[in-house]
Amino acid sequence: MAINQEDFLRLETKARDLRHLIIDTVVWAGSGHVGGSLSAIDIMTVLYHQTMKIDPENPNWEDRDRFILSKGHIGVGLAPVLADKGFFPKEWLKTYNHTGSNLGMHLDKNKVPGLDASAGSLGHGLPLSLGLGLSAKYKKQDFKTYCLMGDGECDEGSLWEAAMAISHYNATNVISIVDRNRCMMDGRTEDVMGLEPFTDKWISFGFNVIVINGHNLYEISEAIDQAHSTSDKPSVIIANTLKGCGVEFMQDNYMYHYASFDAEKQAECHRDINSYHDTRLVEAQGGL
Ligand SMILES: Cc1ncc(C[n+]2csc(CCOP(=O)(O)OP(=O)(O)O)c2C)c(N)n1
User: Fold this and answer.
1) Going by CA atoms, what residue is nearest to atom 22 of ligand 1?
2) By alpha-carbon position, which residue is closest to atom 19 of ligand 1?
3) How far apart are CA 261 and CA 268, in angstroms?
4) What is the 160 CA–ligand 1 centroid distance (Å)?
5) pLDDT, tens only, 167-177
6) pTM (2 decimals)?
7) Which residue ranges form the domains of the chain, and what is each CATH number?
8) What would the pLDDT profile of 139-192 be if each residue is shown by its tens digit?
9) CB 250 less than 6 A from any atom of ligand 1
10) Residue 211 burial (CB count, 10 A)
11) How far apart are CA 69 and CA 122, in angstroms?
């Protein structure tokens, strides 16, 4: 469903608040995968606060939409989203990645209410999503599965095997999303393993490819609508993003794939996130 101005303001505020919560969770944990969390948070905000049919009171509801975080290293990005939705107490975030906590660095489906799959070993989320999509088709359930992948993750062969099968079975109930931040763990994607022409690769696998600015809430929502209304091919949304988006010293810098912050840096992150939010509000009003 396309978003209106009121939705935009609600989602924009939520995205800002979640960015703050991600930074605090990294600090509580001592360190974390912050860069790829901040690149993906706008996408997760739209999914969890606009698109997906979910019920925090009933996390295992059979007909719920599924979210498969294939780039499972950003548990520190997803856990704040799930806590904020009410799947578990926000207090848990203070124990993220501590010994004995329910929240490990790579989230565990058996311990985290609202989590649809344990992940962390890259390249497995899309095959899993294919399974969910096919099972829904055969059982005549109408839920959708949204699979979020990293672009560095697209170096994994298993992902392309799943893409081939999603296309073969025309599993349009699986919506693939790539967080195209052009950075991976220790380099830029095009230096480590070139992905371009990336769009052509997905087209040749039989996909409807939708390329968007992954930090524009309107574009994210419209891309999801377009994916929903395309029935002759499965869709992939290539979301152009920035690693570390919203915090200037981290932005577009793969060195912040994983980081820790002292109190001074934490405060700088929070200041930057607030001014980034203000800029986005002005931009949305056509002011920049
Ligand atoms: C199979 C596998 N190999 C290596 C890793 C280690 N690893 C964790 S994150 C990462 C980089 C992933 O890059 P990308 O998918 O672009 O993630 P993002 O930049 O969006 O965080 C790697 C290689 C892993 N988790 N799984």
Assistant:
1) 185
2) 184
3) 10
4) 16
5) 999 999 999 99
6) 0.98
7) 5-248+260-284 (3.40.50.970)
8) 999 999 999 999 999 999 999 999 999 999 999 999 999 999 999 999 999 999
9) no
10) 17
11) 10
